[in-house]
Structures are given as C-alpha cells and as structure tokens.
Amino acid sequence: MPLETGTVPATDGAQAAPEVFSWPIRVYWEDTDASGQVFWANYLKFFERARTEWLRHLGIEQQQLREQTGGIFVVGQAQLEFFEPARLDDQLLVTAAVASSGRASLTIRQLARLAPGSARGPVLLSQALIRIGWVQAASLRPARIPNRLLEQLS
Amino acid sequence: MPLETGTVPATDGAQAAPEVFSWPIRVYWEDTDASGQVFWANYLKFFERARTEWLRHLGIEQQQLREQTGGIFVVGQAQLEFFEPARLDDQLLVTAAVASSGRASLTIRQLARLAPGSARGPVLLSQALIRIGWVQAASLRPARIPNRLLEQLS
Amino acid sequence: MPLETGTVPATDGAQAAPEVFSWPIRVYWEDTDASGQVFWANYLKFFERARTEWLRHLGIEQQQLREQTGGIFVVGQAQLEFFEPARLDDQLLVTAAVASSGRASLTIRQLARLAPGSARGPVLLSQALIRIGWVQAASLRPARIPNRLLEQLS
Amino acid sequence: MPLETGTVPATDGAQAAPEVFSWPIRVYWEDTDASGQVFWANYLKFFERARTEWLRHLGIEQQQLREQTGGIFVVGQAQLEFFEPARLDDQLLVTAAVASSGRASLTIRQLARLAPGSARGPVLLSQALIRIGWVQAASLRPARIPNRLLEQLS
Q1: Which residues of chain A does C87 touch, with a Cβ-Cβ cutoff of 8 Å?
Q2: In terms of Cα–Cα distance, which of A32, B45, B128 is closest to B53?
Q3: CB proximity list for B32: less than 8 A, separation 6 or greater
Q4: A40-52 pLDDT, tens digit each
Q5: Based on the structure, what is the number of domains in chain A?
Q6: Can you tell me the distance from the alpha carbon of B101 to that of B107, in angstroms, rounded to the nearest whole number?
Q7: Which of C5, C7, C139, D109 has a 20 to 30 A CA-CA distance from D32?
Q8: Which of A29, A35, A87 sits opposite D39 (nearest CB)?
Q9: Within a domain: residue A95?
Q10: With contact defined as beta carbons under 8 Å apart, do D57 and B83 qualify?
Q11: Is B66 inside any structural domain?
Q12: Domain housing B45
C-alpha cells in the first residue's frame, strides 16, 4: 500500500465535466478544528453526503433500499488527498461519479472544491477514491449488488 | 490513484511487534451509525487519537509544540482499508509507527484491532497509511519539520 | 437547575409562525447511531447550522464578523428536549428565533421538525432554548455585543 | 422553559464527593473548533462516555443489556451550562451520579472539570442535568426500566 506522490491533478481533472453530479456543502463550526480549518476526517462526511445525494438523484433512497433488499453499502477502501484548507463559512461543491464497478463493489471518484463564486476561486481542496461494497445489513457480510441497483448506477 | 486489491495482511502484520505503540479505544454510541457498526469516518478519529498519544509518549505535546515553534502537523494523504466491523462497547487497540520519513512529511502506519480479550479475538478491523506534513499554523503553508522534532520521532 | 416536566408544546408552538426562519437539514449516516435514530448530540449541530444560516440571512457572516470585530458567539447555556426520533434520509426543518436578548447574550428558541412532506407529517422532534454570549475570540472573555450587531438581530 | 441565571456552583459542588464516579477524557483535535476550544456539542459526547463508563462500572454493558432485554437508554431532556473553555491536549475529569430516578426515567447530574494536575487547576468547565428514559430498541417506544437494572443503579 505505497503512497503516491501528492501531485495536484491537472486543471482538467480539477474542473469536473459538466455532467458530473455535484452537491453544495457549507462549512460550519462543527466541521472546523483548532487549526482554523476543516478537520480532515470531516471531508469523509462531506464525501458521503455528496454520495448519498448522488444516489438519491439516481432514484436510490438508502433507507428504503435497506427495507426492500436487506442490503446496505459500506466503505471498504479509501484513498484521500488533501491539497488546500477550507475554513468556516466556506461554500464547497463536492462531486461523485463512478470510477469503476464490479458485482460486489463500486469505486467512486469524488472531488471537493471551493464553490466558483468564492474569493479564492474554485480551488481543489481534496480528492478521494472510495470503494463501497454491498453487504447484508443484518450480518454485515458481503453480497452481490442487486441487478436493479447496478442498472440505476450505470 | 488506482486502488489495490484489498487483501487482509498476513497474521504477522495483524499482530504488531511488541515494541509498536498501541492505544486502547472504546466504542461509544457516538462512534456508531444506523448500520450498528462504527461509522467509517470515525476510524480516522481513532487513528488520530492513537497518533496523538504516540507523540505524547515520545514527549511531544502538540499544543505546546505549536506555541514553541508556530507549527502543526496536518494530514496530506491517507490510504484506508476496512476489514471487519466494530460495534458498541467493543474495546479496540490502535497502533502507530513511522513507516517512512522525510524533511517535510512523515508516513505513519496504523492498525485498529479488537483488543486481545474480546470474544471475537484480536481481529484486524482497519489499517491506514497516513502522510502528515508540517505547516506554519498561521498560514497553513508547508515547512521543514524542526530538527529536534525529527530526532524525537526517530 | 430542576428539570421541568417534558410536555410536548401545544400545536401553535409546534407550527412555527410563517415569519420564523427555518432551514432544511437532511439526516445522513454520520448523524445516526446504533439505535437507528439520530444521535442526540447531533441535534446541537443541526440547531447550530440553522442558527448560522439565520444569522447569514440577517446579513451576518461569522468569519467576517470575527475579522472585523475580534468577537465570536459562544454557547453559554442550553435546554434541550427530545420528543420523537429522526432516522436516516429524514428531511428536517429547523427554526431559529430570538426569545430574549441582553447586552452580552441572546437566547434563541429553536425547533426541529420533520419536513411537511414526510410520511409521518411535521412531527416535532426536539426543541431548544440556547443562550449565546459574545466573547473576544483571542481571550474567550465575555464582552458587550456590538451595537450594529444588536440592530441586525432585532 | 425559562433559563436560569448562569451562576458557577459553589466550590463544594465543583469538587465532587470522593465517592462520585469520574472518568478521564483527553481533548483531541476532533473535539475542538475554529475558536480554539472544545466545540460545545462535544461535551455531550464527553458526558455520554462518562455515563457509559459509570454504567459499566455498575456492571451494566449496554450492548449486552439490549440483547438481553430488548431495551436501550435514550436522552429525553438535557440542561447544559458552559463556564470555561477547554483546549487541545487538556485532560478532563467527567463525573456521573443519579440526581433522581423514576420507573421510566433517570436524571443524571454530570460535571466536566479540568483534571487536578492541570496548570489552570480543577476548573469547572460545564455541568449538565440529563434525563434518560428507557425504550424498546425496536420501536423506540418508552417502557418501564427493568427491576434488575433499577437495583444496579441504586
């Protein structure tokens, strides 16, 4: 599990294609720490909120899904990079898009940027590759992603 | 930033060498989510608590350090893998050890396991490689890690 | 500090007057705990988000305010009541309104309800009386609320 | 639900009787916010950790209890007062003791202080009265606290 060189992605990576789903997230006191910036673990919450809203946008409500299928998504792996700090009152845009998919897991690529209107411009703050798997909610054991769900996601 | 195959490390990786620093962490309601297990982002808090206590064990108090040097550690990169769920009341042991170090950053390897006495045994729950950099607290700009600090860490 | 009887407020209390500021908040995984409902401490985050947005709605940006005046709001007291659980994917509406105000503190009344469109109806989930004081950010010592700020709040 | 005057309790209140259960809690980055102090909602986590450890000290493991009785404790009301800020690396002591008890709920009094050895002395940071009720975990409906549990608590 070697770490790669922490290079900021080229501009075309930082500026998501127009069709990429993105979700606005505001930075509140709860998100910051004593360094004055957003506490790093809270980006994982931001990424999850955007991922949840992206699923909702595709017609997938996770609570309903659990009741209907008995399954839930869980995170299996994550690769995170942090480039620039975000601060109190900053407005962020967080994207979500499928990077690759299999029968039991999906890898989602997510970017967190300052919103275009902010004084510092649409700076890339953090990016993540997050692998989510499908498990039975009762046992938390891995299972195949239901076909209907795979169709909604593709 | 490709994801590597999520293989559970061999037993000798899961059982930390005796000299590796480890810190006990209990799972409370605040750490869990509606799946019944620890919310994944909270492992980052567990890893940070263990890292902080490991620094303290080496004689490094971060608040003092900031007042004396004007610098703080920040997370630049993280690679996380999640193997097994932890639940309410579980007792964890979380390790911290330097994997590699440079003039402006350190990479820390951390493991979270169930404590040896638990019913399920010392199961490996999660592992992480976390790269932390040194920045000036006022500007959050990268800087060289002070020599005295590097000596304490080696 | 005796606890009062936990009576649900009358309907006219539960249904905020049209002019009361309210802010939509969605329940994500991060907000829930192993009981399946929103972890109680997270309502304090919801109340603070709504309070922050209410201040923003009045033209008050807290980060700017701090840079201009050197002061910040801090919570001094809170009285909280919890009536009904909220769950994953629930949509909430959280209100904020001044209950009373002085020279160094304000008391804000806040309600958290399910949004009108939800299956269970606009159920009252929680209510709070939160006293916030004004302090110098550097020393965290109490100070008089700036006049301009009091005018914006009234 | 009027707010009472925020007077700091007399010294004999701030210094808990020797027999009062208290639990050490360290302040980490995750607990602080951009004001440099502990984010107020996080005291609720501290209070809950101390309450959980107090229950454990009385022989009550909440996860086991849920499996055996089908019930869990939930917070119904809380009154919170905040007196002094806590900062990164501070060591706290948090107490828990029954203030009053009934058939379906208990009121717990909790204090958070700096630990005796700290530079600022055993300053009282926050106090709380927290009413917890007993509910069926599946329905979250109120129920009578099991007799065995009431005996352990008295």
Answers
A1: 63
A2: B45
A3: B38, B39, B87, B88, C33, C34
A4: 999 999 999 999 9
A5: 1
A6: 6
A7: D109
A8: A29
A9: yes
A10: no
A11: yes
A12: 18-153
